[in-house]
């Protein structure tokens, strides 16, 4: 699991309907300074709301897996607690949001009256759909915290879409060209015994596996031979064996490079498996078109990030560390138990639909584009 960037704030009532909390609630001073960006002051109310909303998502989805000590654990093996990792990302994201707002006039970006109305309604629906305790803990008692973040997301979405319009998205056919192949992979890493332990193969067992792979390589019908041997035939596409972003072993790609369409390779040995490859297409038009879209999107995101990096270098960002340290994730959010919600299921469903429709209606207002996102907690 990786920490996701705090870029998916979709305030539908469905996400936190009926959320309960443990602990003594929110003690943050809303008007205190979280950080300054040049001459703009960002309040602790906005920062705390962003942090606690993110916490609620993590608590709901991961606490059952990692336990209540999740926030104080070094889950990513980088020497930081999960609390610190998430707070660092929230700080970075808020800096980005306010930078985009500071430069919106340069791109003729504004928030319309209709979008403002949708933002206000989405905030009202979100607050109404949750318990008073959850609203207090998440920092939504002051509706301005909610609407401010939603407005920033609106600007972020618009700015992103406008900025990438200026990117150089030329991709040549040679850059995007893809070859496609089918393959079988025979693991040589070992097998699992009856007790669930990983046992390495003997040299004799590896020799038997290699012989089985050779039978597939020599067969007239690649697919039928693979199926008869109990192997799954998979497919892959690639640009060249030198592709640094390729996920397939270089030895496999080099073998595919040496084939003409329809030809089958000999057995290819890697550190963990035997492979047999059949080249299906020397120029896969569908895969090439998909790769072209991927490269264009990457050029747009690189350009967008370069613009942001330039703005960051030219601006002054000062974090109020003493105030930011007061935000903790000690009080946990939790969805109510099933038996507690059955009696009010219909009401919750109605509120959830209202919140969802509001967010969808405010497509540019209550939610930001997933394309801006680079990482998810998965």
Overview of this structure, please?
By secondary structure, this protein is α+β, with helices and mostly antiparallel strands. The chain contains 14 helices and eleven strands. It has helices at 13-16, 44-66, 82-102, 113-128, 132-138, 143-163, 173-176, 203-218, 222-228, 250-257, 285-314, 321-324, 338-341, 345-361; strands at residues 20-21, 33-37, 40-43, 179-187, 191-192, 198-199, 234-238, 268-269, 273-281, 317-319, 333-334. The protein has a four-stranded antiparallel β-sheet, with helices on both faces. Helix 3 crosses helix 6 (143-163) and helix 4 packs across helix 6 (143-163). The protein is elongated, with a radius of gyration of 26 Å. 32% of the residues are buried.
Number of helices: 14
Largest sheet: 4 strands, antiparallel
The proportion of strand residues reads 5-15%
SSE topology string: HEEEHHHHHHEEEHHEHEEHEHEHH
Write down how many β-strands occur, each being a DSSP E stretch of 2 or more residues.
Answer: 11
Mean pLDDT value: 84
Q: Which bin fits the share of residues in helices?
A: 40-55%
Secondary-structure content class: alpha+beta
User: Over all CA atoms, what is the radius of gyration?
Assistant: 26 Å
Cα(first) to Cα(last) distance is 5 Å
List low-pLDDT spans: 1-18, 339-378
Q: Give the neighbour order of strands across the main sheet.
A: 7-4-9-8
The backbone outline, from C-alpha atoms, is: elongated
């Amino acid at each position: 699991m990786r920490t996701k960037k705090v870029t998916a704030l979709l305030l539908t009532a469905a996400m936190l309907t009926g959320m309960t909390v443990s602990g003594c609630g929110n003690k943050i001073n809303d008007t205190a300074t979280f950080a300054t960006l040049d001459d703009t002051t960002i309040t602790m109310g906005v920062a705390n709301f962003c942090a606690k909303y993110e916490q609620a998502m993590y608590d709901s989805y991961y606490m059952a897996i990692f336990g209540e000590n999740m926030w104080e654990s070094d889950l990513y093996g980088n020497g930081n607690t999960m609390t610190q990792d998430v707070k660092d990302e929230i700080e970075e994201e808020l800096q980005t949001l306010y930078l985009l707002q500071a430069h919106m006039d340069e791109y003729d970006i504004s928030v319309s009256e209709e979008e403002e109305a949708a933002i206000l309604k989405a905030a009202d629906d979100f607050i109404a759909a949750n318990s008073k305790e959850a609203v207090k803990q998440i920092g939504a008692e002051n509706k301005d915290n909610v609407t401010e973040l939603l407005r920033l997301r609106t600007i972020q979405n618009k700015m992103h879409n406008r900025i990438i319009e200026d990117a150089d998205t030329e991709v040549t056919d040679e850059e995007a060209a893809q070859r496609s192949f089918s393959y079988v992979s025979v693991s040589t890493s070992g097998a699992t015994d009856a007790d669930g332990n990983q046992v390495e193969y003997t040299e004799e067992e590896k020799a038997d596996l290699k012989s089985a792979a050779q039978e597939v390589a020599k067969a007239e019908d690649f697919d039928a031979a693979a199926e008869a041997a109990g192997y799954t035939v998979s497919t892959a596409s690639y640009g060249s064996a030198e592709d640094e972003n390729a996920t397939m072993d270089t030895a496999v790609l080099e073998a595919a490079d040496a084939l003409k369409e329809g030809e089958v390779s000999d057995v290819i040995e890697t550190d963990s498996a035997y492979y047999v490859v059949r080249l299906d297409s020397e120029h896969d038009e569908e895969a090439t078109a998909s790769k072209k879209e991927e490269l264009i999107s990457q050029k747009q995101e690189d350009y967008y990030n370069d613009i942001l990096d330039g703005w960051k270098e030219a601006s002054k960002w000062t974090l109020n560390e003493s105030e930011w340290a007061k935000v903790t994730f000690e009080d946990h959010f939790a969805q109510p138990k099933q038996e507690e919600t059955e009696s009010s299921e219909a009401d919750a469903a109605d509120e959830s639909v209202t919140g969802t429709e509001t967010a969808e209606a405010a497509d540019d207002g209550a939610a930001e584009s997933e394309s801006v996102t680079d990482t998810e907690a998965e």
